[in-house]
Specification:
The protein is mainly α. The protein has 14 helices and two strands; from the N terminus they run ββαααααααααααααα.
Length: 375
């Protein structure tokens, strides 16, 4: 039947429309487009991921200071001042340490290549060591008396370590540049800190479905970053720089490498006495008594400063186990080199704290769930 010029049973809105599309197809298409967009953006951002993460960590750590300075200087000038002072105070000593370390590595490689390495004769007790004593004594004697012949016989064993040392020295130079860029980006993030915090709240509110929950997660994440970043990494950095200052003043030839080792031990929560005590013994054996006593007192003061710095800088109520920090340090160094030394423990601590908080939240929700009625 027709009514007027239109067939009955079809409305005007149906004219010109094709078959109805499948909701599953639409959903799959949307997910695919979003995944493609995320992949394309990730390819662009991934080379800068470590620098951006460290910049964000620095911005969160320094934002309370920015709020205090902004009341007197304004948002932009406060962020600029923090960036400039941060580069001067943090990067300056780091450049000295890294340059000294790279110089030591370069001198070692050059000495090996030019056959200028001198070694004392092997100690008598080494020959009596079971299993390996005679072989080690033979190799040691050959190196001490005829280095070219030793390199000709065992040089193939040194090619791998020497190549690693060269690569490590190059990584240190890249680490210096990464610190400069990170502080510059952190200053920009600090200047727009309010917008960044609001974006994080909106994103987490979208993910969790609760504005209160998003606010709680943002606060917890910021507290963890500041607690671990300042209380662990910050304290270790200050102590290692103070120890390094003593190493450089005394004139130790390996002051740079020793300072880097002190930084590693400090972040891993290992007492610096394990490093400073042998160095003090060496200084007493090689330097004047007055200099050695001054160096001993300086190491004692630096060692005790941990008891003052940590309560001032460590966030209260943030208990992160040492294995988490240790794994973050090792994994961070393996993945991101020098920059990962600072990023790794902070990120792993944030993940650990958020996981524990999520488990506690799930447990609390299970306890509040009403009992099922009896059947």
């Amino acid at each position: 039947m027709v009514q007027g010029n239109r067939p009955m049973g079809r409305s005007a809105s149906d004219l010109g429309t094709g078959p109805g599309s499948s909701p599953m197809f639409d959903t799959t298409l949307r997910i695919g487009l979003v995944a493609l967009l995320v992949y394309a953006c990730a390819r662009i951002v991934l080379p800068f991921a470590s620098i951006l993460m460290w910049s964000a960590i620095l911005a969160v750590m320094l934002y309370p200071l920015h709020l205090r300075l902004a009341a007197y200087l304004g948002e932009r000038w406060s962020a600029l001042l923090i960036g400039v002072i941060g580069v001067a105070l943090m990067l300056g000593p780091m450049v000295i340490v890294v340059t000294s370390l790279a110089t030591s590595l370069y001198s070692l490689v050059s000495s090996v290549q030019s056959h200028d390495v001198t070694m004392p004769s092997p100690p008598p007790w080494l020959d009596g060591t079971p299993l390996v004593g005679k072989k080690l004594t033979e190799i040691w004697t050959l190196v001490a008396t005829n280095l070219p012949a030793a390199l000709k016989q065992y040089g193939h064993l040194l090619s791998g370590p020497l190549a690693w040392l060269g690569s490590f020295a190059g990584g240190l130079a890249i680490g210096e540049l990464s610190f400069v860029v990170s502080f510059a980006i952190a200053a920009v993030l600090i200047a727009f800190g309010k917008g960044g915090a609001e974006f994080a709240r909106r994103l987490l509110a979208r993910v969790t479905g609760s504005t209160a929950r998003a606010e709680q997660l943002v606060t917890l994440t910021a507290a963890t970053i500041r607690g671990v970043g300042l209380g662990v990494v910050g304290v270790a950095l200050i102590q290692s720089l103070l120890l390094g200052l003593g190493f450089f003043v005394v004139g130790l030839p390996t002051a740079g490498p020793l300072t880097l080792v002190a930084l590693l031990l400090g972040i891993m929560q290992i007492p610096l006495l394990l490093l400073s005590l042998p160095v003090v013994v060496y200084v007493f054996a090689t330097e004047a008594t007055q200099t050695a006593v001054f160096f001993l007192v300086w190491n004692i003061v630096v060692g005790l400063s941990d008891n003052v710095l940590r309560p001032l800088m460590l966030g209260r109520g943030l208990e992160v186990p040492m294995p988490v920090i240790l794994m973050g340090v090792i994994g961070g160094v393996i993945v991101d080199g020098l920059l990962g030394l600072f990023i790794g423990p902070v990120l792993l601590a944030v993940g650990y704290v958020l996981l524990v908080e999520w488990l506690q939240q799930h447990r609390a929700g299970s306890r509040q769930r009403p009992d099922e009625p009896a059947r």
